[in-house]
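testing teh design pipeline on a random one, pls ignore if ur not involved
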């Protein structure tokens, strides 16, 4: 009861609760202390600063951690001073959280102290300090971050390179060019990405050389960086590189042509160009690898080599903290890799792991990809973020590896004529529902975001976008009868009532009209053109809404919708725009939906980084075995 009361006071955000919450920081129950500290951060009242500073010395690790985070939310001058002092705290977790909070506040007063923290004895503190300097974006930090590129700890070098990319100061270009040859692959990749963000032509020659790097990720990111930096003057050189067999040069050419406004998409992707350069991709071929985990924790892995069995073992208490940190956006690549590896070890025990690697090796030998389909009979297991699966042996997140396409597969009976492939242009119906009795949506902002993301594809005739902003059942049915849409993209609220999730449409009085998965699926009964439903909570939606949509999505697939995409976490506007751009563009190129999703996750990881949850946020549920929608 006390825990729930503290949580409720944090939601109410009334300063009258401050005194009681400060007292609750010393409650005998750890959950109450944790919720009280979190609530004080939500209230953001300067009265709480002194108590939170004192809580930095609390014996409870969680209270110390949340107190530092709460100070970061308050963003008061007194808070900045306290957090700077906390960078010298006896506990490394306090120093780390203080650095993170200073990055959130983005006050240049903290720069000198954070530069000193780059030499902290704890590697996590050092990397958080570099991250914070990148968030503050003050050029005073450039020299220290350049020096940090030579630190013995690869994670500090990685964070320093990332921070220099965020600051975008050309002083860093020479050092980042050197970092393209760092001994650690993560540092090499982020250095290429940082050069793309700085956009200085000094880096062009080095990035062209990096297109031949043995690390495919470095090649890809160098290509992306050249696409950002390069002018049309380097196109002849890029064609030479491409004709020499360097496939990623194609991406550079495409990006520069598109930006230079003399780009012909059809000619660039035509078969004749592919035959001339002999570098175009062959028709995509896949080897299937399906994993089913039943309600008795038995695993069956099926592939062309037959079935193997294993036992699913996962200690939930070992991953709970990681899941909480991901939910609150407090991540780094070590945390995500650790969680991803724990999930991988549980899902790929010895024999299954060996069979999977054998399948991967066979696919690579035949220039195929692997279609990895996951089936979970337990809702509890299905709710875990499997898109973070990380294979230590190959140092790869399976969710963004373009040689592996990952989806949650819903194994339902399917006739061959049930799904017909879409023809261009892709017809997208965007439905935004904002009932007046639920939290107000920024409908203009949501429409602008999607329209902006798809603008060039609409102008190129690849996509048709229609809009419904009064999301009544009648309006939706009428629109669906007017045109055979391929994609139904819904932005709005999810509601949880009576132990069941609902999608909130609008009635004639603009109040919420709740539809469960069955009622929502009725819109599409007998519609053979519709291949995909997108479920997006609005920007800033409650965490529970994302969970509701993630729970409704597989049920929609069971009700004969070929594929459904839902976001398992909230995403920033920039990531949402990138997702819409990459995903719909790749679908319009004729990729199967799971391959399009994989390439989109990969693009997000390149743009946002593998240290943030964004790349694993989109979840694909499908029943189309070949991904064709």
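output:
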């Amino acid at each position: 009861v006390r825990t729930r009361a503290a949580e409720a006071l944090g939601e109410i955000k009334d300063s009258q609760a401050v005194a009681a919450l400060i007292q609750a920081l010393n409650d005998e129950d750890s959950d109450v202390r944790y919720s009280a500290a979190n609530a004080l951060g939500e209230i953001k009242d300067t009265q709480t600063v002194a108590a939170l500073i004192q809580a930095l010395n609390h014996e409870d690790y969680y209270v110390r951690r949340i107190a530092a985070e709460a100070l970061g939310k308050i963003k008061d001058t007194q808070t900045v001073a306290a957090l700077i002092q906390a960078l010298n705290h006896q506990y490394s977790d306090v120093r780390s959280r203080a650095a993170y909070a200073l990055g959130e506040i983005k006050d240049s007063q903290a720069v000198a102290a954070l530069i000193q923290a780059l030499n902290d004895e704890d590697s996590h503190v050092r990397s958080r300090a570099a991250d914070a300097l990148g968030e503050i974006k003050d050029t005073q930090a450039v020299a220290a971050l350049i020096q940090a590129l030579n630190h013995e700890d690869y994670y500090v070098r990685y964070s320093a390179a990332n921070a220099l990319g965020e600051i975008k100061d050309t002083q860093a270009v020479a050092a980042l060019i050197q970092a393209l040859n760092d001994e650690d692959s993560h540092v090499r990749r982020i250095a290429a990405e940082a050069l793309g963000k700085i956009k200085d032509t000094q880096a062009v020659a080095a990035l062209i050389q990096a297109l031949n790097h043995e690390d495919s990720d470095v090649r890809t990111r160098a290509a992306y960086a050249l696409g950002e930096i390069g002018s049309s003057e380097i196109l002849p050189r890029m064609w030479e590189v491409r004709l020499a067999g360097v496939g990623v040069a194609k991406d550079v050419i495409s990006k520069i042509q598109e930006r230079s406004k003399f780009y012909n998409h059809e000619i660039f992707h035509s078969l004749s160009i592919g035959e001339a350069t002999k570098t175009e991709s062959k028709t995509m071929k896949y080897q299937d690898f399906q994993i089913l985990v039943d309600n008795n924790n038995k695993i069956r892995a099926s592939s062309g080599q037959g079935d193997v069995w294993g036992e699913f073992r996962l200690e939930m208490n070992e991953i709970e903290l990681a899941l909480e940190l991901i939910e609150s956006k407090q991540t780094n690549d070590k945390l995500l890799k650790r969680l991803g590896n724990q999930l991988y070890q549980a899902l790929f025990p010895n024999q299954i792991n060996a069979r999977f690697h054998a399948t991967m090796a066979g696919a690579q030998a035949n220039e195929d990809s692997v279609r990895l389909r996951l089936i979970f009979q337990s809702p509890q297991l299905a709710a875990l973020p499997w898109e973070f699966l990380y294979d230590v042996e190959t140092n790869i997140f399976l969710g963004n590896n373009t040689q592996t396409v990952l989806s949650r597969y819903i194994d339902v009976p399917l006739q061959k004529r049930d799904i017909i492939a879409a023809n261009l242009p892709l017809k997208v119906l965007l439905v935004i529902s904002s009932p007046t009795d639920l939290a107000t949506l920024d409908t203009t902002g949501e429409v602008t975001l999607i329209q902006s993301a798809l603008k060039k594809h609409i102008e190129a005739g690849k996509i048709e976008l229609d809009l419904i902003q009064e999301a009544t059942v009648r309006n939706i049915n009428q629109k669906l009868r007017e045109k055979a849409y391929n994609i139904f993209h819904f932005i709005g609220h999810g509601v949880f009532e009576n132990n069941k999730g609902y999608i909130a449409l609008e009635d004639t009085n603009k109040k919420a009209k709740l539809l469960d998965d069955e009622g929502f699926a009725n819109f599409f009964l007998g519609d053979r053109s519709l291949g995909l439903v997108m479920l997006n909570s609005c920007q800033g939606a409650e965490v529970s809404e994302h969970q509701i949509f993630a729970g409704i999505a597989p049920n929609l697939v069971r009700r004969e919708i070929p594929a459904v995409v839902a976001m398992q976490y909230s995403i920033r506007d920039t990531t949402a725009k990138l997702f819409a751009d990459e995903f719909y563009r790749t679908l319009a190129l004729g990729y199967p939906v799971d391959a399009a999703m994989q390439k989109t996750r990969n693009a997000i990881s390149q743009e946002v980084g593998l240290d943030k949850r964004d790349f694993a946020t989109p979840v694909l549920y499908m029943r189309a075995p070949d991904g064709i929608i």
